[in-house]
Amino acid sequence: MAFHSALALSIPFSFVPCRSNHQTLGVRTKPSLALFKLVNPLNAPRFGAKPTGFSSNPTLFLRRFRAGSSLGDAADDEPPPLVGEDSAVFELAKQKIASWVYFSVILGTVLYVLDVVWIDNSTGFGKAFIDAVSGLSDGHEVVMLILIMIFATVHSGLASLRDLGEQLIGERAFRVLFAGISLPLAVSTIVYFINHRYDGQQLWMLQNVPGVHQLVWLSSFISFFFLYPSTFNLLEVAAVDKPKMHLWETGIMRITRHPQMVGQVIWCLAHTVWIGNSVAVAASIGLIGHHLFGAWNGDRRLALRYGEDFEVVKSRTSIIPFAAILDGRQKLPKEYYKEFFRLPYLAITALTLGAYFAHPLMQVASFQLHS
């Protein structure tokens, strides 16, 4: 996913289709065993253990829920103990050189295979795929929506089958299967949009309005801080580390429980304002619809995986940005900003800026694909 995210951000007039250590933040002391039992009287399994589902005793669950909430009320300057995971944690001392060597080899291999099997017009199937879909309609808007629907169906469908797939073939094999099918479809959808983003019916023209370009650029930059946390561990993306379904709770998750959906909405609105034509509107409708479904489906899957722990996290987070903070359900640590001063966030900042300045080269490359 990092590949097509970086590509899309680099072009402020393109699009992107498309979520550690379990520890307490440094701004508070580690809770005692008695405190943990108060927050978790059911002794729910820690992360990595098999889910036990919801308690059959609603009284115990309510007591646990109120305990988690009351801890925050007892000390206004401290948030309650974490139930989910501390996100974007990267400790250099715990990194293994061999793991990153494997990551580099796997990344290079994946990109080479992707180019030969899908991207290269002379050897790959990408152009044939685009030609087949384009043959369904003369309207670029319709083709755009069909491409997004194909990607969304495959991407969300495989995500929904993750538990079953991991049981059958294992976490790493399922991740390879998931990426091997989703990535080519994502690349083709992105390339089609880039190549045809100005071919639709022009509905408005605001590109010469002062401040619009700066607004679109700033919105794109901000959107990728929301889009990125689909994962915080690149080694899991490449299946070097065993992939996990995480229940993140810190960093940007305090602002919204579904940052990828929020980031996609920000990105789509900004670029639709900039391009102002029917193709951009069609792409935005398709992408926002897909991510709204993804938010619902993500909550459903996390509830099945983590049971009552997810219900606690859900109770003190929100889908709408800042809503849980404003109504007091989310209590921020004193030094909340430090949750963003971590390598994954710094890396996405550097990649975002670098990709933006390299976007002319990427636009030229896109015109040579599937056309």
Summarize the structure.
One of its GO terms (molecular function) is 9,15,9'-tri-cis-zeta-carotene isomerase activity. The chain is mostly helical.
Describe this structure in words.
The chain is built from 16 helices and no strands. The radius of gyration is 22 Å and the shape is globular. The chain has helices at 2-10, 33-39, 58-74, 97-119, 126-134, 140-160, 162-169, 171-196, 212-227, 234-237, 259-275, 278-306, 308-315, 323-326, 343-357, 359-367. The two termini are 23 Å apart. Helix 5 crosses helix 8, helix 11 runs antiparallel to helix 12 (278-306) and helix 12 (278-306) packs across helix 13. It has one domain. With 371 residues, it is mainly α. 60% of the residues lie in helices and 0% in strands.
β-strand amount = under 5%
Report the mean per-residue pLDDT as an integer. Answer: 82
Helix content: 55-70%
Unreliable residue runs: 1-75
Structural class: mainly alpha
Number of domains: 1
> Which H/E pattern describes the elements?
HHHHHHHHHHHHHHHH
Rg, please?
A: 22 Å
Oligomer status: single chain
**What is the distance, rounded to the nearest whole angstrom, between the alpha carbons of the first and last residues?**
23 Å
**Net shape:** globular
Quick one: biggest sheet? none
The count of β-strands is 0
Count of helices? 16
GO biological process, one term: carotene biosynthetic process
Membrane topology: Multi-pass membrane protein
Organism: Ziziphus jujuba (Chinese jujube)
GO molecular function, one term: 9,15,9'-tri-cis-zeta-carotene isomerase activity
